[in-house]
Design goal:
The complex is a heterodimer. In chain A, about 70% of the residues lie in helices and about 0% in strands. Chain A is globular and about 55 Å long. By secondary structure, chain A is mainly alpha-helical. Chain A has a domain of about 140 residues. In chain A, helix 6 runs parallel beside helix 8, helix 6 runs parallel beside helix 15 and helix 11 packs across helix 13. The longest helix of chain A has about 35 residues. In chain A, strands 1-2 form a two-stranded antiparallel sheet. Chain B is an alpha+beta fold. Chain B folds into 3 domains: about 30 residues; about 190 residues, Penicillin-binding protein 2a (Domain 2) (Alpha-Beta Complex); about 375 residues, DD-peptidase/beta-lactamase superfamily (Beta-lactamase, 3-Layer(aba) Sandwich), CATH 3.40.710.10. In chain B, the strands form 8 sheets. In chain B, strands 2, 3, 4, 5, 10, 18 and 19 form a 7-stranded mixed β-sheet that branches. A 5-stranded antiparallel β-sheet of chain B has the order 12-11-24-23-21, sandwiched between helices. The relative contact order of chain B is 0.10. Classes of the chains: A mainly alpha, B alpha+beta. The interface between A and B is large, with 55 and 44 residues.
């Protein structure tokens, strides 16, 4: 396989969609800066631009390595990330607070985010080795453990959003790997029984967030404040938007987590319905393109790994937007290439890189 | 490829599942678009409004309240500036240090000032917090000297109500207070802002809508921490309308002076149109306490006073009218042809009804008398013999005709309608049967009969002017701060009572004899050269009768209520006066003296009377005996 073939098979549509969304993301972050932030160089926008630089470097690194190699070392990656998560947890125990980050000098990283990538690699490897058409429930004990251990550890941090994404992505891979319908039904039954138990173990604020999602108007200054301010921001954009840097909800800080969880609301107030539709169409192109890539692969590891990568992006997008417009409860999930945050950007870019990687090498294993 | 299994191959079922997920994703996308369409396009304007309101804070600038003026435009109630020291926390350098400085400067405790600041913690930081109220001029200059040391602290000048004559007329003007959250919810206070003061009682309450004015506002763009971000837009407040009352300042002052130490009420009214010339209710209070912020101690003192200083006794206190009510009995007797003015009827010291004995106040009474004498000497037994032949509903009919038993409709809040008994009403209200004896008591203004001073003066005015029942009123004109007349209030005739001229003449003559006759009960109220007519009344508080009424031996609360109501001159009346002295030391005769002085003053103003050089009236007052026989 020559480099020129790789370039020929490179999915430029996917790549440039990501570039456009990233560009809009930077513009949007600039537009969210409060009036107090006069020092642009000092702001989070600058840091995010640096993160983009780092993540595109990571992207090309991933593309240049054959995805099969990545799957081969999956267990090591999974193990390292799991250890990092445990370190974070232990550190949090010592410092008595929520701790999700490990400091790397200038930057901090969030191991729980990295678990998303590690998990899809491990599951792809496990199911490729197992090679069955349909899995019984008993066959799924190991994948279950692979999924549930990080999910519980991350939930303990506490980081409900990431923990849910890891769980859902894991479940989707299990589903696509060919679990029997009967097994699926039994698993669902257990979920219904186990769910109340999990509910019991949620932190008070996590419970209240879910409850408030069900009745937002009841607590406009409590936790429901977030949802209401977000809906106001989105709605206030009307058709054409208030304009760049004129989103009062974010400029004046009425919108909480305006550059992370509620970045979509920041965007929607500035650019209105038209802007929102353009952004959603861009994400739609990105994701449908991803579906095509996964659908067209002919090898199981590529299929499973690609699905995992695809659903990381899909779930991030759908949950983040859904939560900003009041369709889903507030859980901390980033909007790919939009939300401020280094690790989540690297994770989303890595997912894209995996899709590009698979797409680029789709002919490589055809003959084999 | 199909379903054939090869190494690392994919089954068709797996791709089907992927398609299924793609379908769900597409459906979710449509749902998201629909929701965004709803938020931004359909409900966009609503959210746009919410967002703009989020970002702008409105600071209300209270409008100065309109003035309350006398009939000639003299100021009775206006505004003065109160200087407060306030602080805006965001502008301070070191709050603690500066608070310490302020505390030592004005001899306040630091902990108290700190508590005030802490209490207002929930306020947005740009809001000012009042630390010290009502600064004296000396302290004002002290602050100005040290101003540079105190960034964030400033003098806040706010208009507060100023009652020029203090306690005088307090219940009529009423007081103001910070609007309550309950009031804010009411529709009639829709123009009021949460930091506003509103009238709570009296004219302040009744004409609140006019007095209030239009608040100005300062719009500031702030962020969610309350820090000011943008420009300030100011809309200036517009002062409230001024209210011209009908009160005659000189008369009001005199009435208050005469009543100051007593418990009771005085009303002076123009009987030809219902204009209130003076109205006082005592004991009084200074309404300024309420605008400066009343202390709990002062509040308790006012509220727990059993003489009820807050109550406007002139319109809110309904009492037995005693003999002043005989005018109703006389009218009923004449109209039903039971008596004629001149026909003499025997009136003894007692009147027997079955086994019950009804006494005349004067046990020496034992002769045939006509109506004039009956009124002049207030002979109870004369009226019993009328009452015994009347049904209570007939007495009630004539009472209602004269305006009793119903609110007069004066432009003051919380008027008491009084009570005129009928069989049905007594059964409904008191669950008691009616006895004939009660009819006898009713005709001399006892038993269930209860009237307010304003009703009494309204009724006597109607007699004085020949049958025109006017609604009493106290505000004649409302003028905006720019001088435009907003509203003019004219006198309102409630009804024309059809009275035979001869009856009116007879009643007036009887009332004339009360003051001017040889044996009249109010002869000490005589005015030289003026035909002053009136009627005394004594209402017993307890049924015990004292053979000699001497205040020294009766506890205050058990003392009788003394009434006098009258008008002058007889033929073309200019003024009507009612005086109520509750738990009086002296009885109706003394109340007549109060009325006399007011009438004299008014007629002197009108150029109809001059005080004599000998100051006869002063001597008379001093010579008044400390005891007088009970019940006139």
């Amino acid at each position: 396989m020559k480099l020129s073939d790789n370039i020929k098979n490179f999915d430029f549509i996917l790549f440039f969609t990501v570039i456009i969304i990233s560009f809009l993301g930077i513009v949007n972050l600039l537009g969210s800066l409060s009036l107090e932030h006069h020092e642009l160089l000092d702001s989070y926008v600058m840091r995010q631009i640096i993160w983009f630089g780092i993540s595109f470097f990571v992207m090309f690194a991933i593309i240049s390595i054959d995805y099969n190699t990545l799957i081969d070392i999956a267990y090591y990656i999974y193990g390292i990330v799991l250890i990092l998560i445990i370190i974070v947890l232990v550190k949090g125990k010592i410092s008595h607070g929520a701790s999700r980050w490990i400091s790397l000098g200038l930057f901090t990283i969030q191991p729980s985010e990295l678990m998303k990538i590690a998990l899809i690699l491990v599951l792809a490897k496990y199911f490729t080795n197992a090679k069955k058409k349909y899995y019984k429930l008993t066959d799924l004990i190991i994948p279950f453990l692979i999924i549930i251990i990080p999910v519980l550890l991350i939930a303990k941090e506490p980081d409900l959003g990431t923990s849910l994404i890891v769980f859902f992505v894991g479940c989707i891979i299990v589903y696509l790997s060919g679990i029997k319908r009967v097994s699926m039904a039994i698993a669902m039954f257990f979920a219904v029984v186990v769910l109340p138990l999990i509910w019991e173990h949620l932190k008070a604020y996590q419970k209240s967030r879910i409850l408030i999602f069900l009745h937002p108007a009841k607590a406009s200054l409590g936790a429901g404040y977030n949802i209401i301010q977000s809906e106001i921001a989105v709605g206030a954009g009307r058709i054409f938007g208030d304009g760049f840097r004129r989103g009062s909800q974010s400029i004046l800080n009425f919108l909480p987590a305006k550059q992370t969880d509620f970045i979509f609301s920041t965007y929607a107030q500035q650019f209105g319905f038209i802007g929102s539709i353009i952004l959603i169409v861009l994400y739609f192109i990105l994701i449908i393109r991803g579906f095509q890539i996964v659908y067209n692969t002919k090898r199981l590891p590529a299929f499973l790994l690609g699905s995992g990568a695809l659903f990381i992006i899909t779930l991030h997008t759908v949950i983040n937007i859904g939560m900003a417009i009041g369709l889903l409860p507030v859980v901390g999930v980033p909007l790919p290439f939009f939300s401020y945050g280094g690790t989540s950007l690297i994770v989303d870019i890595s997912a894209v890189a995996i899709l590009l990687n698979i797409s680029m090498r789709r002919y490589k294993y055809q003959s084999g | 490829m199909s379903s054939a299994f090869n190494e690392n191959g994919i089954f068709k079922s797996q791709k089907k599942r992927l398609n299924f997920l793609a379908l769900i994703f597409s459906a979710v996308c449509l749902l998201i678009i629909a929701r965004i369409f709803f938020l931004q396009v359909i409900d966009g304007n609503h959210y746009y409004y919410l967002a703009k309101n989020n970002a702008t804070r409105v600071i209300y600038l209270p409008a100065p309240r309109g003035y309350i003026l006398s009939n000639t435009g003299k100021i009775l109630v206006d505004n003065e500036s109160s200087f407060n020291i306030a602080v805006t926390i965001t502008h301070t350098k070191s709050l603690k240090r500066e608070l310490h400085l302020v505390a030592s400067m004005f001899h306040k405790k630091y902990s108290r000032l700190y508590k005030i600041v802490k209490k207002e913690e929930f306020l947005p930081n740009y809001d000012s917090i009042i630390l010290i109220r009502n600064l004296s001029i000396k302290n004002l200059s002290l602050f100005e000297v040290n101003k540079l040391e105190l960034p964030g602290f400033f003098i806040e000048k706010i208009p507060i109500r100023h009652y020029k004559y203090g306690d005088m007329g307090a219940q009529i003007f009423g007081y103001v207070g910070l609007v309550s959250s309950k009031q804010l919810k009411e529709k009639k206070y829709s123009y009021v802002n949460p930091s506003d003061i509103v009238g709570e009682t009296g004219l302040e309450y009744y004409y609140q809508k006019y007095l209030h004015g239009k608040d100005g506002e300062k719009r500031v763009v702030v962020n969610s921490f309350g820090k000011t971000e943008g420009k300030v837009v100011i809309k200036k407040p517009k002062m409230g309308d001024n209210i011209y009352s009908t009160l005659n300042l000189a008369l009001e002052k005199l009435a208050y002076k005469l009543m100051k130490k007593k418990e009771g009420a005085v009303i002076a009214m123009n009987p030809n149109n219902g204009k209130i010339l003076a109205m006082v209710s005592t004991p009084s209070f200074n309404p300024v306490y309420f605008s400066k912020g009343i202390s709990t101690k002062e509040w308790d003192k006012i509220v727990n006073n059993d003489e009820h200083p807050l109550q406007n006794k002139a319109i809110q206190n309904s009492l037995a009218p005693g003999s002043t009510f005989k005018i109703v009995g006389a009218l009923a007797g004449l109209e039903t042809h039971l008596i004629t003015p001149n026909k003499k009827i025997f009136a003894g010291p007692t009147y027997k009804l079955g086994n019950a004995v009804f006494y005349n106040w004067n046990p020496d009474q034992d002769s045939k008398i006509n109506l004039y004498t009956a009124l002049e000497e207030s002979v109870d037994t004369y009226f019993y013999s009328i009452a015994v032949r009347l049904h209570i509903s007939q007495i009630a009919y004539y009472a209602h005709l004269l305006g009793f038993g119903k609110k007069t409709g004066i432009d003051l809040p919380a008027e008491n309608p009084g009570f005129i008994p009928t069989r049905k009403l007594v059964y409904k209200v008191y669950h008691r049967r009616w006895y004939k004896g009660s009819t006898l008591s009713s005709i001399i203004g006892q038993s269930y009969v209860s009237v307010t001073p304003i009703q009494l003066i309204e009724a006597y005015s109607a007699i004085a002017n020949g049958g025109y029942l006017y609604r009493p009123y106290i505000v004649s004109k409302i003028v905006s701060s720019s001088g435009r007349t907003v509203k003019e209030i004219k006198s309102r005739l409630i009804r024309r009572i059809k009275l035979k001229k001869s009856y009116v003449k007879a009643l007036k003559k009887g009332l004339y004899e009360v003051v001017n006759g040889k044996n009249g009960t109010a002869t000490n109220g005589r005015i030289r050269g003026i035909s002053f007519c009136g009627k005394t009344g004594t209402a017993q508080i307890i049924s015990k009768t004292y053979s000699i009424y001497d205040a020294k031996y009766i506890p205050r609360k058990d003392r009788d209520n003394a009434w006098f109501v009258g008008f002058a001159p007889m033929n073309h009346p200019k003024i009507a006066v009612v005086v109520l002295e509750m738990h009086a030391k002296f009885l109706g005769a003394h109340a007549a003296v109060v009325a006399q002085k007011i009438v004299e003053k008014y007629l002197e103003q009108k150029g109809m009377w001059k005080p004599s050089l000998k100051k006869r009236k002063n001597n008379k007052n001093k010579n008044l005996p400390s005891f007088i026989y009970t019940s006139f």
